Automatic annotation (TrEMBL), chain B:
GO terms for biological process: early endosome to Golgi transport; intracellular protein transport. One of its GO terms (molecular function) is phosphatidylinositol binding. Residues 228-357 form the PX domain. It comes from Paramormyrops kingsleyae. Residues 137-162 have a biased composition (Low complexity). This is Sorting nexin-1. Residues 49-69 have a biased composition (Acidic residues). Residues 531-558 form a coiled coil. Belongs to the sorting nexin family. One of its GO terms (cellular component) is early endosome membrane.
């Protein structure tokens, strides 16, 4: 795992959920199996300290269910202030899977035909959830990780996060002026970051696709060279055939290099950028929730003022409640935002470093192979 | 550098067309003794068969240099002597190979003459009368002697030198320089040969059939030892004029040590139609003899129109650069061909300041249409000629050429797609870099912000690298493949010429047969007056048949040689290009390593 979640989070790597502790670093989504019409992910986790291993098959619907469950509990004050770890988009139906469609649906995660990148994203999601101070305590995690039967199928329940509920009013509320300067600034910067990070991710997608295309073209080049080599008798033609084969080898090296570079781009830098991008969107949603609450509060205040004496006490109650809620949310939000800033920087640091190291390694390897070939070729040249 | 053949070179003062491969010719001449030195084995063709014997034109480095030296130093025998002590190795080697007894100079003093075959006998003559052909032979021989013997045989050297200087002075006195030119230059054909007609004494040249076959192996060895001393570069494309009458003028710079040129380095301005005109001229003269005349780059009306209209965009700059490189390669191929290099048109192209405008190369001209029609009729007649191939080699080769053409076209398509993808990558990387830069500037955290800006810079540099690699792919491979696809057309052309020659021979045979039948008929009909005429005609056609048959043999040999040479060149070309490509790939990777190494600390420093 390139981005080490457990290092990022200040929280203890093991989370106590009334006896059910999971070792964050042990959480893995190892593979995606295509069963019938959908993808099944193999989710593994290890309990702490018992070291008991759990392996379950989960579909995407199960993950969705998990996400919604996390938002449900009413008992936790300020739950809405939490920036929820972002879940990747739903993978599309199989039959009509072209790379274009996959990218449209999944963004960067759709670039990998093997779903490796997608699995890594799911893995990160789970790790982030489990290691979250508040979310990690949720009971549903237990059933998610241990129950053989997937809990999914209950996706009908609408959670707060349900994007389908976004309506025109949200756009109005989005631009509602904030009372707090901290939040005002944060909302502004968040909105620009969301935009920029998304754009950067898209551009990276274009780069990776082109690199994949180049690898393919190199493959064609090499194959064509091979096909042109036949049994030759006369010396000049033989020389030419030898040259063709040599060139073919070199092109294969170029191809492998590009495949490696593209993979690094995708699985390290891309994954990191994608996570940051989705996290920022999650933050945006959180801020929106808070803004909604603010609107509600202000509405309640107005109502209170306008209220007739009979209802005044009631209104007062309502207003006080919403004020309290709002305060809770804002407090939590403040903490979460600061955490997110930190997380962002760390994610970037980790993934940029790791990415650079991998690319450097790839370049060094390719360079040494190429110089070997060049030396051999020069020797060939001098002997002929 | 010492001149090997001071005397003959002096002649260059008088007669510009100088034999390129003088030394090789001389060496070969020595081996062939009396048979050599026939410029007129076949009179009219500018490049007589004898030339075929030495396809490689590479003049030894020493040649031209020595020629130059001779010019400056030949007034002093002593100097000459000194100079002579360094004959080019290959000639020495060859001569020593050819000459059974590699005696030191001492032999030259007449006494040695006995040891040598016919040449020596002639040498005796030489000493008495400066017969230029023998002269050249001897001259060729002499450098060999002085070479090995220089150290030990100062005496004999001086002697021979003395002789040489005598000869030189004699030669100088004589205006009949061509004589010596002829003898050693049986391989080299210059059109000014007609001047040599004055040398009746040159009749020593036996019009023997080329001993090409005999010495072909030797020649090939010689060729591989020779180095090419002629560098051509095309630079500085400039737009001349305005609007639709504008054209690009390219500077053609030649650096050479070949004596046949007026100076060592010179530059002329040429335009694209000049190159096409050169091709037309060369093609007319040589294609019919079975030579593979390299075809020029293609016309591009669209490309040129953009340039003319004055669009200063990267695509028109790319077009000009592509054309410049293609023209350069074209000229380099032309001069790499031993026979073509001898053609005065080539020399004129390289040297002459102003060339008459080649108007019949315009795409939409009357001459252009005529050419199209000619080509069409050629194609039709080609289809109707069914040749009885007696030599399976030709049939196989032709098939090889066909399949190779297909393969090259496929490769070209694949390489072009690779080049396009690389260009795309370059563009995408640039766009990505910009995004990253913007992200970095909106980032609050300073270290992260700086790292992101650094990343943007790295990506920018990578874009540059990708661009370079794309252009390398293009120029190294795509253009090479395109060149060879065109060249294969030339190869096919020479096969066609051979077929035509065969056809002509067959037709002549048919006509002869008819004449004979006619004669028989006349005999039977007893018409003595017409009989005489018939007999004359028969004689005439018998000659023609013989000649055409000989032509066919000749062209077959030429084609064979040309194809072999072509294949060698092709292998060499591809090898060089692969090497270049490898080096550029390696360079790219090493650059990348540098960039990543520079970025890594920045990434780590994010806090």
């Amino acid at each position: 795992m390139v981005v080490s979640v457990s290092e990022m989070m200040d929280d203890a790597p093991e989370v106590s959920v009334s006896g059910f502790n999971l070792s964050v670093s042990s959480i893995k989504v190892t593979e995606a199996i295509k069963k019938e019409n959908s993808l099944v992910f193999v989710v593994g986790a290890q309990e702490f300290p018992s070291k008991k291993q759990h392996f379950v098959d989960r579909k995407f619907e199960d993950f969705e269910w998990l996400q919604q469950c996390l938002l449900m509990p009413d008992g936790i004050p300020g739950l809405q202030g939490i920036i929820f770890p972002p879940l990747p988009a739903k993978p599309c139906a199989f039959q009509s899977n072209t790379q274009e469609k996959m990218i449209k649906q999944l963004g960067l995660l759709g670039l990998d035909d093997d779903w490796k990148t997608y699995c890594m994203a799911l893995e990160m999601y789970l790790q982030l959830v489990v290691s979250h101070t508040t979310l990690g305590k949720n009971q549903v995690l237990r059933s998610f990780f241990t129950q053989t039967q997937g809990p999914g199928g209950q996706a009908g329940r609408k959670g707060i996060l349900n994007r389908l509920s976004q309506a025109l009013e949200e756009i109005k509320k989005e631009n509602h002026q904030d009372v707090d300067e901290f939040f005002r600034n944060e909302r502004a910067s968040n909105s620009s970051l969301v935009r920029l990070t998304k754009a950067t991710t898209e551009r990276l997608i274009a780069v990776v696709r082109t690199q994949q295309n180049i690898a393919l073209a190199c493959g064609h080049f090499s194959t064509t060279l091979h096909l042109g080599v036949g049994p030759d008798e006369d010396p000049a033609a033989k020389t030419f055939s030898k040259l063709s084969l040599k060139l073919s080898e070199i092109i294969i090296i170029v191809k492998k290099n590009f495949e490696c570079v593209a993979e690094n781009n995708l699985n390290i830098l891309g994954l990191g950028l994608d996570l940051v991008s989705r996290y920022e969107e999650s933050e945006k949603e959180m801020l929106f929730r808070r803004t909604c609450k603010l609107v509600e509060l202000e509405q309640n205040s107005k109502n209170l003022e306008k209220a007739k004496p009979a209802k005044k006490a009631n209104m007062e109650e309502i207003k006080k409640a919403s004020e309290k809620e709002f305060r809770h949310i804002s407090d939590i939000a403040r903490l979460e935002i600061q955490k997110l800033h930190r997380v962002r920087v760390e994610v970037f640091q980790q993934c940029l470093t790791s990415w650079c190291e991998k690319q450097l390694h790839a370049a060094r390897e390719t360079s040494s192979i190429l110089s070997q070939h060049l030396r051999a070729f020069k020797q060939l040249d001098s002997t002929e | 550098m010492s001149p090997r053949q001071p005397i003959p070179f002096k002649m260059y003062l008088f007669c510009p067309p100088s034999p390129v491969k003088f030394y090789d010719a001389a060496a070969a001449a020595c081996s062939r003794s009396l048979k050599m030195a026939t410029s007129s084995e076949r009179s009219p063709p500018p490049f007589p068969e004898s030339e075929d014997q030495e396809p490689d034109p590479d003049p030894a480095d020493g040649d031209s240099d020595e020629g130059e030296d001779i010019f400056t130093g030949n007034s002093k025998p002593a100097e000459i002597k000194a100079e002579r002590h360094q004959p080019p190795v290959d000639v020495t080697a060859k001569l020593q190979r050819d000459i059974p007894s590699s005696d030191p100079l001492g032999d030259l003093d007449g006494s040695g003459a006995n040891k040598k075959p016919a040449r020596d006998g002639r040498q005796a003559d030489l000493f008495t009368e400066p017969r230029s052909d023998i002269f050249s032979e001897e001259a060729a021989a002499r450098p060999a002697r002085p070479g090995p013997a220089s150290g030990s045989n100062a005496n004999s050297s001086s002697k021979s030198n003395g002789i040489h200087s005598d000869e030189e002075q004699d030669i100088f006195a004589e205006a009949t320089v061509e004589l010596s030119l002829d003898s050693p230059h049986s391989e080299r054909k210059e059109t000014p040969k007609p001047v040599t007609s004055t040398e009746s004494s040159v009749a020593v040249q036996p019009s023997a059939p080329k001993t090409a076959l005999k010495t072909m192996a030797e020649l090939e060895e010689e060729e591989s030892e020779d180095k090419f001393e002629l560098n051509i570069s095309i630079t500085n494309p400039e737009k001349v004029g305005d609007g639709m009458n504008a054209y690009m003028a390219y500077q053609v710079s030649t650096q050479t040590s070949l004596p046949m040129f007026r100076s060592k380095s010179f530059t002329v301005k040429r335009r694209f139609s000049d190159f096409l005109g050169l091709y037309e001229k060369l093609s007319e003269k040589h294609a019919q003899n079975g030579y593979i005349v390299p075809p020029p780059p293609e016309k591009s009306i669209l490309g040129m129109t953009k340039v003319k209209v004055g669009k200063e965009d990267p695509s028109s700059a790319e077009f000009v650069e592509r054309r410049r490189a293609a023209l350069e390669r074209y000229l380099q191929r032309v001069v790499a061909h031993p026979s073509l290099l001898q053609d005065p048109d080539v020399r004129e192209f390289l040297e002459r300041d102003e060339l008459p405008r080649a108007v019949n190369t315009q795409a939409l001209s009357g001459a252009g249409f005529l050419k199209m029609i000619n080509r069409a009729t050629d194609a039709v007649s080609k289809m109707t000629i069914k040749m009885n191939e007696s030599d399976i080699w030709f049939e196989e080769k032709l098939q090889e050429v066909e399949s190779e053409d297909q393969q090259l076209r496929k490769l070209h398509g694949v390489v072009e797609s690779l080049v396009n993808h690389r260009k795309d990558l370059s563009i995408n990387t640039a766009v990505f870099a910009k995004s990253v830069a913007m992200l970095g500037s909106s980032e609050d955290n300073t270290a992260l912000s700086r790292a992101l800006s650094q990343l943007a810079e790295v990506e920018d540099r990578m874009e540059q690298l990708h661009q370079e690699q794309a252009s390398s792919d293009f120029f190294v491979f795509a253009e090479l493949l395109a060149d060879y696809i065109r060249l294969l057309g030339g190869v096919r052309g020479c096969f066609d010429q051979r077929m035509k020659t065969w056809q002509r021979w067959q037709d002549a045979q048919v006509t002869l047969q008819k004449k004979r039948e006619n004669e028989a008929r006349l005999l039977w009909a007893n018409k003595p007056d017409k009989l005489q005429q018939a007999k004359e005609e028969i004689a005439e056609w018998e000659n023609k048949v013989t000649q055409y048959e000989a032509d066919f043999e000749r062209i077959s040999t030429t084609v064979r040689k040309e194809v072999l040479r072509f294949e060698k060149e092709k292998a060499r070309d591809f090898k060089n290009q692969i090497m270049k490509y490898l080096e550029s790939l390696l360079h790219s990777q090493q650059q990348l390593i540098k960039y990543w190494e520079a970025f890594l600390p920045e990434a780590k420093a994010i806090a």
